[in-house]
Design a protein that fits this description.
This protein is mainly alpha-helical. It has seven helices and two strands; from the N terminus they run ααααβαβαα.
């Protein structure tokens, strides 16, 4: 199975990017019911569909092929951070190693929680100056 972790990673990333199944389906030019079937694992995507979804979510298709315990790169979440935090994370080499792992989802962190963490980082950065 090429995309063993596809259902979990798809649902996780779709929620992080704050997209409904309908929104993702529209962006990937597939049906909402197909997105739901992909997320439950009742169907496996073709390579073509996986690429369309990866493009719609702005990630490399390899994101869906990674092992379950591999962390999700922080850059997949940057678009949800405030502008100040985004530019800090994109420019600072000292934090380029940061990643958010699947543990965030396992611990029940929502996109709002992640935004709150980003605010904390920004406040810490300002205090450090």
């Amino acid at each position: 199975m090429l995309f063993k972790n596809f259902p979990r990673r798809l649902k996780e990333l779709r929620k992080i990017k704050d997209l409904s199944q309908r929104d993702l389906a529209k962006n990937a030019d597939i049906s909402p019911s197909y997105v739901a079937s992909l997320e439950t694992g009742s169907v496996e995507p073709t390579l073509r569909v996986a690429q369309k979804i990866a493009d719609a979510l702005n990630v490399d298709i390899k994101f869906f092929m990674e092992k379950e315990d591999e962390p999700i790169p922080l850059l997949n979440f940057v678009s949800h951070f405030p502008n100040e935090v985004r530019s800090f994370l994109e420019k600072e080499e000292s934090v380029s190693w940061l990643t958010l792992s699947k543990d965030f989802a396992d611990q029940g962190l929502s996109p709002e929680d992640i935004k709150e963490l980003a605010d904390i980082i920004l406040k810490h950065k300002k205090l450090s100056k």
